[in-house]
Amino acid sequence: MEKTTKILVDEHKNILKVVDVIEHECDLVESGKKLDKDFFIKAIYFIRNYADKFHHAKEEDILFKELLKDSVQERLHCNPIEQMLHEHEKGRNFVKLTETGVKKGNSKKVIEDARNYINLIRDHIYKEDNILYPMSDEALDKKTQKDILDRFSKADKLKDKDKKKCLLIVNEFKKR
Ligand SMILES: [Fe+2]
Ligand SMILES: [Fe+2]
Q1: CA–centroid distance, residue 33 to ligand 1 (Å)
Q2: pLDDT, tens digit, for every residue of 53-70?
Q3: What is the CA(57)–ligand 1 centre distance, in A?
Q4: Domain containing 25 — which CATH number?
Q5: What is the pTM of this model?
Q6: Which of 14, 62, 153, 154 has its CA 20 to 30 A from that of 37?
Q7: What is the distance between the alpha carbons of residues 163 and 135, in angstroms, rounded to a whole number?
């Protein structure tokens, strides 16, 4: 695996960890636990800042843009990027709906929308790890890989504070 996609796969692992904890909390709420608003607010903060602003930004602003260049497109046997972008949008919408449910204290809505998000993001990550990233490793040359890596680290530096906060949430959630 190239370093660029390895970074993204590792970020997926953090997202999946948090998503597992959210799913567990949904199960608890479903079996009668009171809606823990603080938990869901924290989970939504993580998704927005880590999954979206941190991880999806690397895909949308950097990697996908490279893959969409004509010279690269010629070498791809299919183009899943439109679909990936559509799924990012869908995910943002589910998160918004979950947030609305949390604000209203509507447990049923929170569970439903959070589960929609969980299913979507698991499926999305599976497709990226197994289809899109291997494709990217094959299609992009060494110079482009190096260039992407530089841009990744520049993008990370800008969001360093949020990243640290999000990684604390991952660690906290792991202990739940
Ligand atoms: Fe993605
Ligand atoms: Fe991703």
Answers
A1: 32
A2: 999 999 999 999 999 999
A3: 9
A4: 1.20.120.520
A5: 0.96
A6: 14
A7: 27
Distance 95 CA to ligand 1 centre (A): 15
**Dist. CA 105 → ligand 2 center (Å):** 30
- State in Å: Cα 32 to ligand 1 middle: 33
Is there a contact between 129 and 12 (Cβ–Cβ < 8 Å)?
A: yes
Task: Give 56 Cα–ligand 2 centroid separation in angstroms.
Answer: 6
Q: pLDDT tens for residues 31-53? A: 999 999 999 999 999 999 999 99
Tell me what the mean pLDDT of segment 146-168 comes to: 94
Q: How many distinct structural domains can be found in the chain?
A: 1
Query: What is the whole-number distance in angstroms between the Cα of residue 134 and the centre of ligand 2?
Result: 13
Decide if 63 contacts 8 (C-beta within 8 A).
Answer: yes
Q: Where are the alpha helices (DSSP H) in the chain?
A: 3-30, 37-46, 57, 64-67, 70-73, 81-104, 107-127, 133-139, 142-158, 160-174
- HSE, side-chain direction, 13 A CA sphere, residue 90: 15
Expressed as residue numbers, the domain containing 15 is 3-174
Could you tell me the distance, in angstroms and rounded to a whole number, from the CA of residue 124 to the centre of ligand 1? 6
